[in-house]
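Dear colleague,

As promised, here are the two records you asked about, laid out in our usual form so they can be pasted straight into your sheet.

NAME FIELD: protein one
SEQUENCE, THEN STRUCTURE:
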Amino acid sequence: MPLESKFSEVAENRLYSLAYNKSIREHKLMASRCKKCGYLSIPPKPVCPKCHGSEIDVVEMKGGGKIAAYTVVAVGAPLMVEEGYGREKHYCCGVVELEEGVKVCARILGVDVSKPEQIKVGTPVKMDFVETFHAADPTHEEGERTFLAFTVLEKP
């Protein structure tokens, strides 16, 4: 059975998700910008969620931002467990507000997850990417994958 048949709701936006995933593999973060109202969406969408306009530009984000929210995770999602994270090895993920004003969820790198109280909302970050190997799952073949991340900028 083709993937599109299994995941029909994903198949409707297949070109957008394929293009977004390709941009991540190329170490670029793309968003859609509505020509009517200027609203930015990550990942890109074919219709503006704010005004329902369908005239959309796809634009590249600069990559700078600040932590808007975060959590340190001890019981990870299956992909993170596969990478070795869990009760003994925590990781940080969060929401980053980009310079352009749009927010995106990603891993936060360069923080001491053993001291989450030292991680601060508003801390400047730069876009980064994590390259890792994963087993097959219902939507991906086995192999290398690239994930969006943000690294805390060094303090001056």
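NAME FIELD: protein two
SEQUENCE, THEN STRUCTURE:
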Amino acid sequence: MEVTSVTSANPSTSSTYFSQIAAERVDVALCRVSTQVAKAMDAAFGDARLSVSQHLVLGMLARVGAVSQQELSEQLRIDRSVMVGCIDGLEDAGFVRRERNPHDRRAYAVVPTGAGLAALEEVDRGMTDRLDRVFGALSPSERAEFGRLARKVLDV
């Protein structure tokens, strides 16, 4: 592979490099899309100061109710060691609490609090608009197809 020196680099070639590499490698394109989505989510989270993982946890708890950390980790595909810190942060913020599982006294269930559900609702209000901006270049049918293909890759 030939390396071009800094002094002889062609500005028009270097400015199109990302377009070229993104066209050649879907992994690069997906990483950049993921970065754009993460930035949109961070902006939507605003003052709630939630991480993407914490948002996912609160969303699951709001939909299915109290579950164990292990179940959250498995369902959301978040490493268990990361999940501990995620739940600790949510608990410190007053968004969840850990309670003994009434069916298994050795286990704990993670339970959303009213404050946690309110923070989730606040964050979700701005989410749709921000994601619409990220995916604005796609028609509704292209966006649906993109989602279908992503789920296929994730095997869900």
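A couple of things worth noting about protein two: Residues 49-126 form a domain with the Arc Repressor Mutant, subunit A fold (CATH 1.10.10.10). The radius of gyration is 20 Å.

Best,
R.
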